[in-house]
């Protein structure tokens, strides 16, 4: 039972354009959402997060949007850079706060 | 430098053999986690520990065992009962006691386990 789903295994965009990565969830107990970025043969690193009491959180080129009614969140990267090429994982946390549930990941490729 | 160290980077397991993956952290974090990454399946939680001498099963604990005798160390043993052990294994840690604890998991660089 995949509670956090990233339906797009891969995404390719041109440098300077917007990258939009999507994530859907099914568990209504999730109230905190995070995005992690992972390069090959390395561990993921935290990128940005959002609480369920908000619908948007921005940090530089990265913005996360949350639509609770649709159980959907998205990560926008503007402008995209070649160094952004990585696998992006969406993750969610329940109210109990003891663990994270990750999605399958989306491979983003930013072409120069 | 503070961080999480996983070793070895590559590990090969023979049929019927148990192997142990090491994870050490010097971040003074209370909580530690083991995840498994398979292509197209994201990160799946194997075991986690919120405090020394205590740990809980994650979503795919069968065929694995852990111990948490020291705060700094959380080794994972892949037993012969784990029939499909080939994967990339990631260890992580986080502060505990607040919601922000799980907000920022700090990951090690991973161990790639393959079956001979």
Provide a concise account of the structure shown.
Chain A is built from no helices and eleven strands. Chain A is an all-beta fold and 112 residues long.
Can you lay out the helices and strands and say which pair or pack?
The complex is a heterodimer of chains A (112) and B (116).
Chain A (H helix, E strand, L loop, with lengths): L3 E2 L4 E5 L4 E7 L4 E9 L6 E7 L4 E4 L2 E6 L4 E6 L8 E9 L5 E3 L3 E6 L1
Parallel strand pairs in A: 2-11
Antiparallel strand pairs in A: 1-3, 3-8, 4-5, 4-9, 6-7, 7-8, 9-10, 9-11
Chain B lengths: L3 E4 L2 E4 L5 E7 L5 E8 L3 E10 L2 E4 L6 E3 L9 E3 L8 E8 L5 H4 L2 E2 L3 E5 L1
Report on the architecture of this protein.
The complex is a heterodimer of chains A (112) and B (116). With 112 residues, chain A is mainly β. In chain A, 0% of the residues lie in helices and 57% in strands. Chain B is mainly beta and 116 residues long. In chain B, the strands form 2 sheets. In chain B, strands 2, 4, 5, 6, 9, 10 and 11 form a 7-stranded mixed sheet that branches. Chain B is 3% helix and 50% strand. In chain B, a hairpin with a 2-residue loop joins strand 5 (42-51) and strand 6 (54-57). Chain B is built from 1 helix and 11 strands, in the order E-E-E-E-E-E-E-E-E-H-E-E. The chains are: A mainly beta (112), B mainly beta (116). The interface between A and B is medium-sized, with 24 and 27 residues.
Keywords:
heterodimer, A: 112 residues, mainly beta, 5-stranded antiparallel β-sheet, 57% strand, globular, B: 116 residues, 4-stranded antiparallel β-sheet, 50% strand
């Amino acid at each position: 039972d995949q509670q956090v789903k990233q339906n797009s295994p891969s995404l390719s965009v041109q440098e300077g354009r917007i990258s939009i990565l999507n994530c859907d969830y099914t568990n209504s107990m999730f109230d905190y959402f995070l995005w992690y970025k992972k390069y090959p043969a390395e561990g993921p690193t935290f990128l940005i997060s959002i609480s369920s009491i908000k619908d948007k959180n921005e940090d530089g080129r990265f913005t996360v949007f949350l639509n609770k009614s649709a159980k959907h969140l998205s990560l926008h990267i503007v402008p995209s850079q070649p160094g952004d090429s990585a696998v992006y994982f969406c993750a969610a946390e329940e109210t109990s706060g003891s663990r994270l549930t990750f999605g399958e990941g989306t491979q983003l490729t930013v072409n120069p | 430098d503070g961080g999480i160290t996983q070793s070895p980077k590559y590990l090969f397991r023979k049929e019927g053999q148990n192997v142990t993956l090491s994870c050490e952290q010097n971040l003074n974090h209370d909580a530690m986690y083991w995840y498994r990454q398979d292509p197209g399946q994201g990160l799946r939680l194997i075991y986690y520990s919120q405090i020394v001498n205590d740990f809980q099963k994650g979503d795919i604990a069968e065929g694995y065992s852990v111990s948490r005798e020291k705060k700094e160390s959380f080794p994972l043993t892949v037993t012969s009962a784990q029939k499909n052990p080939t994967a990339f294994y990631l260890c992580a840690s986080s502060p505990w006691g607040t919601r922000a604890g799980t907000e920022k998991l700090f990951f090690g660089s991973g161990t790639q386990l393959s079956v001979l």
